Amino acid sequence: MNVVLLGPPGAGKGTQAVRIARVFSLRHLSSGDILRGERKAKTELGRQAHDYMDRGVLVPDDLILRMMMEHIGQADAAGGFLLDGFPRTLAQARGLDERLERQHRKIDVTVNMEVDSAEVIRRLSGRWSCPQDGATYHEVFSPPKQAGVCDACGAALARRPDDEPDVVSQRLRTYHEETVPLVAYYRERGILETVSAAGAVDEVTAAVEGVCRKRQ
Ligand code: AP5
């Protein structure tokens, strides 16, 4: 099964992606995490993406499509993948479908995670991430066992620079302008499922898992 998680920044796509990928044995591919990895490794792609990410606007479609298709083409994604943060524009969605079709593959379900902007701001203003393994915490909703330290690897947790309030506002605008049209795109193709992402993490997992099972 191949799954897309769609939703605004802070909807909990990354949080849910880790759980859902485990349940269905899917390769979790987060475009944001891959880009942050490229930046950390100081690659040419990371250098090109840097400025867009820090401003809260989208990295150009051609760079993203090339990067994501490379990962989708790897052996560990052959048994099924879960896309988190990609596609994010109509051009990316169409480009993904065309390229998958050539490989006789397709997206089976797109889960649209709905949550309002006030909740997004609450979530992003309390988010802490592990720069080593990408684990995500929230200082109120899902705190680490020891404040400021990753449960899994012990590294010091950090705030993402794009979680500053003015960048979050820009990310929300970008989402409404560029990504919301994908809801209609996937609905027309008959593969859209919508869940409320406003509840607690376990409730959202149950909802996402339920709609994926229907499409399995
Ligand atoms: P990216 O890293 O993809 O950011 P995003 O989509 O804005 O999503 P986030 O990672 O901020 O949020 P999330 O939905 O994963 O929420 P999370 O689970 O962390 O992209 C960053 C940048 O990279 C973009 O701005 C762009 O520049 C570039 N980029 C990436 N992909 C691109 C693409 N395809 N095309 C072009 N450019 C691209 O949860 C958030 C917080 O809430 C956490 O603290 C978590 O613990 C907490 N939380 C989660 N669920 C719940 C819950 N149910 N209740 C309470 N708290 C919760």
How would you describe this protein?
The chain is an alpha/beta fold and 216 residues long. Helix content is 49%, strand content 13%. The chain is built from 9 helices and 7 strands. It has a 5-stranded parallel beta sheet, sandwiched between helices. The chain has a two-stranded antiparallel sheet with strand order 5-6. Helix 1 packs across helix 9 (201-215). The mean pLDDT is 96. Residues 7, 9-15, 31-32, 35, 52-53, 56, 58-59, 64, 85-86, 88, 92, 123-124, 126-127, 136-138, 141-142, 162, 171, 200-201, 204 line the site of BIS(adenosine)-5'-pentaphosphate (AP5).
Count of beta strands: 7
The rounded Rg comes to 16 Å
Oligomerization state of this entry? single chain
- Main β-sheet description: 5 strands, parallel
Outline: globular
Strand residues, percent: 5-15%
Mean pLDDT level: 96
Bound molecules: BIS(adenosine)-5'-pentaphosphate
> What series of H and E elements makes up the topology?
EHEHHHEHEHEEHHEH
Poorly predicted tracts of residues: none
Q: In terms of structural class, how would the helical and strand content be classed?
A: alpha/beta
Q: Termini distance?
A: 6 Å
Strand order of the largest sheet: 2-3-1-4-7
Helices, by number, come to 9
Per-chain topology:
Blueprint (H helix, E strand, L loop, with lengths): L2 E4 L6 H12 L2 E4 H10 L3 H12 L5 H12 L8 E4 L5 H13 L6 E6 L2 H9 L1 E3 L6 E3 L26 H15 L1 H8 L3 E5 L4 H15 L1
Parallel strand pairs: 1-3, 1-4, 2-3, 4-7
Antiparallel strand pairs: 5-6
Helix pairs in contact: 1-9, 2-3, 4-5
The structure holds BIS(adenosine)-5'-pentaphosphate.
BIS(adenosine)-5'-pentaphosphate binds next to helix 1, helix 2, helix 3, helix 6 and strand 6.
